[in-house]
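Hi all, posting the design record for the shared folder.

TITLE: backbone redesign
STEP: 1 of 1
STRUCTURE INPUT:
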């Protein structure tokens, strides 16, 4: 079993991205925001507009394996991602960071 990874929660896009070593920005959008979202980043609060396209990850493992930058997983970021998932939030790639978004603020693209 050495070298095998759990892939049950990978989407095809995440698995391809991981296998090819592509940056997370190469992932296609999976959802559209249905409301403006407020987030904090160094320097203050920013608003992510309603109707924006984002890639949502099915799990923290899928997000990590998709090629997210290492700084996303350092210290508090990994803990925050885990807490977001435990709280029922979805993990979306927004403005160069992994953000927790309430499912009611996301619409699956068809």
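Okay, here is what came back for every position:
SEQUENCE:
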């Amino acid at each position: 079993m050495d070298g095998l990874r759990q892939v049950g929660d990978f989407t095809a896009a995440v698995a391809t991205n991981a296998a090819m070593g592509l940056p997370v920005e190469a992932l296609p959008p999976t959802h559209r925001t249905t409301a403006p979202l407020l987030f904090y980043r160094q320097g203050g609060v920013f608003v992510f507009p309603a109707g924006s396209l984002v890639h949502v990850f099915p799990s923290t493992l899928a997000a990590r394996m998709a090629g997210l930058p290492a700084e996303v997983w350092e210290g508090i970021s990994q803990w925050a991602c885990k807490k977001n998932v435990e709280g029922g939030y979805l993990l979306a790639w927004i403005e160069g960071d992994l953000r927790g978004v309430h499912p009611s603020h996301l619409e699956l693209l068809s």
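COMMENT: Residues 1-7 have pLDDT under 50 and may be disordered.
Let me know if anyone wants the other runs.
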